[in-house]
């Protein structure tokens, strides 16, 4: 972070997948935020990119912190696919916090990312206010009925999500899980 702070010419760097700690990633983001007209990317995402695919790259929570910075400053990305990584609850929280201010991402794929009920709760909070995401893939995570309840409640207020995939989660009573979502999502494809 100190080297990045001292550099006056670097505009783009890709530090994804470098086993950073969440604190280390936050320090890099703080430096980038202090240079808003200089550092435009910490993940190597081009300014005009519309799709970002990081499938199965072993990305974790710290990488999600970096990607969240990108989502806050990038106004062209419409699809973010982080399937088959390990962002977990902490990483999901950072990504969806960025979606509260991002007005371009319409597709978010977090398939197989070790997201549990706490992450589902963060996702639900963001869905309650986000008006751009139309497709959300949370399949093959560790979300139980509790997390599904949070998402179902948020979808009562969210009118933009039309596709939601929660297949293969830890729902206990499969029929109750489906009914819960259908109850709040009658106009959506689940």
List the helices and strands and how they pair.
Layout lengths: L1 H5 L15 H13 L16 E3 L7 H13 L5 E3 L6 H12 L7 E3 L7 H13 L5 E3 L7 H11 L7 E3 L8 H11 L6
Parallel strand pairs: 1-2, 2-3, 3-4, 4-5
What does this structure look like?
Strands 1-2-3-4-5 form a five-stranded parallel beta sheet, with no helix packed on it. It contains seven helices and five strands. It is elongated and about 55 Å long. Helix content is 41%, strand content 8%.
Distance between the termini: 43 Å
Sequence of secondary-structure elements: HHEHEHEHEHEH
What is the approximate shape? elongated
Model regions low in confidence, pLDDT < 50 over at least 5 residues? none
Q: Quick summary of this structure?
A:
With 190 residues, the protein is an alpha/beta fold.
Name some characteristics of this structure.
190 residues; 5-stranded parallel β-sheet; elongated
